[in-house]
Amino acid sequence: MEPIKVLTKNVDKPNSAAIDTYIAGGGYESLKKALKSTPDEIVQLVKDSEMRGRGGAGFPTGMKWGFLPKDSPMPRYLLCNADESEPGTFKDRVIIEKDPHLLIEGMIISAYAIKSCPMSYIYIRGEFYKGAMILVKALEEARAKGFLGKNILGSGFDLDITVHRGAGAYICGEEMGLIESIEGHRGQPRVKPPFPAVVGVFGSPTIVNNVETLSCVPLIVEHGAEWFKSFGQPKNTGPKLYCVSGHVKKPGVYEFPMGVNLKELIYEHCGGITDDLPLKAVIPGGGSAPMLTPDEIDLPMNFDALMKAGTMFGSAGIIVMNSSTCIVDATWRMSKFFAHESCGQCTPCREGTNWMETILDRIERGGGRPQDADLLFDMTDNIGGKSLCALGDAACGPVASAVKKFRDEFMYHIEHKSCLPGTKRYRRLDMPVGAH
Amino acid sequence: MAHLQPDSPYATERYADTTRSVEFKPDAKAKFDALLERYPTKEAALLPALHLAQEEFGWISPEVMVYLGTLLEIEPAKVFGVVSFYNMYNQKPVGKHHVQVCTNLSCMIRNAYDIYDRCLEKLGLQPGETTKDGRITVTEVECLGSCGTAPVVQINNDYHENASVESIDKLLDTLK
Predict the structure, then answer these.
(1) Which residues pair with A241 in a beta bridge?
(2) How many CA atoms does the CB half-sphere of A325 hold within 13 Å?
């Protein structure tokens, strides 16, 4: 499969973030077209495109929009999730920094389609300071051209967009955490139901969509649902950004139709494994996705195929590890992340993630006990599905899969108090590690 | 919280000193007022207001928490709850250059810990500490969303991508 340039068609242009560049490439034409149709027609178009959300869960976007209550007197909100905090994911940043107007156009059309109130928010992670500044500038340009503000292009539709910077919390990428964070609270997810479409931000019906999802909307309006479906497989449609990082020769963001073969992506497009070492493990969908072994990676990268393989497509953040990686150490690092980022609300997640980290660290330091592998596996069963949001499940993904698929290495580590020959840990045990 | 003492050496564990109140300068106050217009509730402006306060005052002291609480009509305790939840709000003064090394998996397997260790050793610091001259603080942070150009080091608002021990070593020397 060859790489495509659909979502990324503008990113290589000089001065690609400027509105003039965007308009010269046909930008904001989709908005003009969309404003001539009714909101319901746009919703139907997105439903027909069978687009699934690009944030991680893969929920059909049109269906999500359809969940908004028809008779609520409350204003409706559209929130853009630009938190991009899943380890291994760096695709939204490309759109935000290189083609912000694609996202803004997508937001205006989407807000029109869901009959949003006149204010919409982009929740961008606090670390993306540069991206936030680019968005602020792009929004000013769009206001000056009349694409934002009152009575957009004479349609009678009003909208403005505010960039809301987060402040360094993974959990705010979860839609309920994000909503709490916009309201000025600690980003602790709420109980569902009610789902955000019914009661979301400021007590109003709310739609939360990922940057890439919203950026697909102008393309669907421009070319139609059938065109969008011509990429990928049934139920897994559209162009898709893949982020490849770790032990590959050419890491980066790649665009393919949905369903590119994972093996082909790693070995042909990313130039293979660094130092020409054998492959050891691949995390296919961001840090929370269960690991795959080298004999499992000959599959199409889409939602359904990866679910069938016992892992998840998530945000398409592919982390590749070669044979030099100590899998215990790699698993420890993921656990440390989740222990740090657990919001502290649900006991199984708050306590469990910390214990998993502690046990993995003790195995790495040569203090592992023979029952530790089973203990870890058992713990994942006691955390998964027992917390309010998906963070608990996410924390279990890498641990459960690593213990299951690399059990021999864990046992070797526990028995010999050292890494498997040929593997190494990428940290020094005598150095202090940052506290949580 | 039981040992909250006004004279505690730990800034975050003391009460606000009422004799040392803080206030935005006029231009920052104007920015703050503009923020309020973007949200339907005052409380929702807390996160951006904290970012603004951190730019103004350098860190979020108990006095800043009380000040923002007054402006936004929320309890200072609630402000403290938010400040302590998010990573990016500094609860104690940080150096002029805040060096944040990502050590998450993608960066780790591209030797991010070597960079982190080098920063600590070179400056003689423990994690999160600041050099005595107040120049540099070094912390370890979670994924910065730049894994394709790992390892990445964030210094204040700037990303330094494809970093190496040598490049960061040189960079540290240039931070005045």
Answers:
(1) A255
(2) 29
CA distance B104 to chain A (A): 7
Rg of chain B over all Cα atoms, to the nearest angstrom: 18
Å between B82 CA and nearest CA of chain A:
5
Identify the pLDDT of residue B4. Answer: 45
Give yes or no for a contact between B76 and B64, defined as CB atoms under 8 angstroms apart. no
CB A314 within 8 A of CB A52: no
Written out in words, the top-level CATH class of the domain with range A19-230 is alpha beta
Q: Which residues contact A368 (CB under 8 A, 6 or more apart)?
A: A359, A362, A410, A413, A414, A417
Whether the predicted pLDDT of B108 surpasses 70: yes
CATH topology of domain A327-416: de novo design (two linked rop proteins) (1.20.1440)
**In whole angstroms, what is the distance from residue B133 CA to residue B127 CA?**
17
Query: Each residue of A266-292: pLDDT tens digit?
Result: 999 999 999 999 999 999 999 999 999
The string of DSSP codes covering A114-151 is TT--SEEEEEE-TT-HHHHHHHHHHHHHHHHTTSSBSS
> What DSSP designation does A268 have?
I
Residue A249, pLDDT > 50, answer: yes
Scanning A145-223, the segments in alpha helix (DSSP H) are 175-182, 211-223
pLDDT band at B7 (very low <50, low <70, confident <90, very high): low
Residue B161 exposed, middle or buried by CB count within 10 Å (0-12, 13-18, 19+): middle
Over residues A183-222, the pLDDT tens digits come to: 999 999 999 999 999 999 999 999 999 999 999 999 999 9
Strand A236-237, strand B158-160: pairing: unpaired
For A362-391, the pLDDT digits (tens) are 999 999 999 999 999 999 999 999 999 999
d(CA A31, CA A152): 10
List, by residue range, all CATH 3.40.30.10 domains of chain B. Answer: 97-174
Q: Does B5 touch chain A (CB under 8 A)?
A: no
Size of interface A-B (CB pairs under 8 A): 162
Measuring CA to CA, which residue among A128, A50, A135 is closest to residue A89? A128
**Hey, where are the domains in chain A?**
19-230, 233-322, 327-416
Domain at A233-322: CATH code? 3.10.20.600
The pLDDT assigned to A434 comes to 64
* Pairing of the two strands A252-257 and A239-246: antiparallel
Q: What is the ipTM for the molecules in this complex?
A: 0.93
Model confidence pLDDT, tens digit, residues B27-36 = 999 999 999 9
Contacts of A181 in chain B (CB under 8 A): 47
Check CB contact under 8 Å for A168 and B86: yes
**What dotted CATH number matches B97-174?**
3.40.30.10
Query: B165-169: long-range contacts at Cβ-Cβ below 8 A with a sequence spacing of 24 or more?
Result: B165/B111, B165/B114, B165/B115, B165/B118, B168/B115, B168/B118, B168/B119, B169/B118, B169/B122
Pairwise CA distance, residues B49 & B60, whole Å: 11
A246–B150: do the CB atoms touch at under 8 Å?
yes
Paired tokens of B13: 């564990």
In this prediction, residue B117 has a pLDDT band, given cuts at 50, 70 and 90, of very high
